[in-house]
Write a structure and sequence with these properties.
The chain is mostly helical. It has one domain (about 1-99). About 80% of the residues lie in helices and about 0% in strands. The chain contains 3 helices and no strands. The protein has helices at about 1-35, 40-60, 70-99. Helix 1 runs antiparallel to helix 3 (about 70-99). The radius of gyration is 17 Å and the shape is elongated. The N and C termini lie close together (about 5 Å). The model has no long low-confidence stretch (mean pLDDT about 90).
Length: about 100
């Protein structure tokens, strides 16, 4: 059973790193949106391609308020924090029990 425990531990570590990277990219995208970025810039295109699959469903579920504030990055960030606190920690504890 230690092999399954090691596998779950490695999976939890990778999932935690992916969550950290996505949180970082969402924060960068939100900060860049405050200025007028060049839509043809390679960094802006990369940020849009990576974060849009997460932000678009949230925008469809929660419409923007009449004041024009997009709160989808905040909701996505909170969702990632929840996933990291719940799923990653649960996988780590299950892995510790199996070792």
């Amino acid at each position: 059973m230690f092999i399954l425990g090691n596998f779950l531990f490695a999976l939890a570590k990778i999932l935690g790193i992916v969550c950290d990277i996505m949180m970082f990219l969402i924060i960068i995208r939100a900060l860049i949106s405050w200025v007028n970025p060049d839509p043809y810039n390679a960094i802006v295109i990369f940020l849009n391609r990576v974060t849009e699959p997460i932000l678009a469903p949230i925008r469809r579920m929660i419409p923007m308020f009449s004041i024009g504030i997009d709160i989808s990055p905040i909701i996505a960030w909170l969702g990632i924090v929840f996933l990291k606190a719940f799923l990653v920690k649960s996988l780590m504890e299950i892995a510790a029990l199996l070792q």
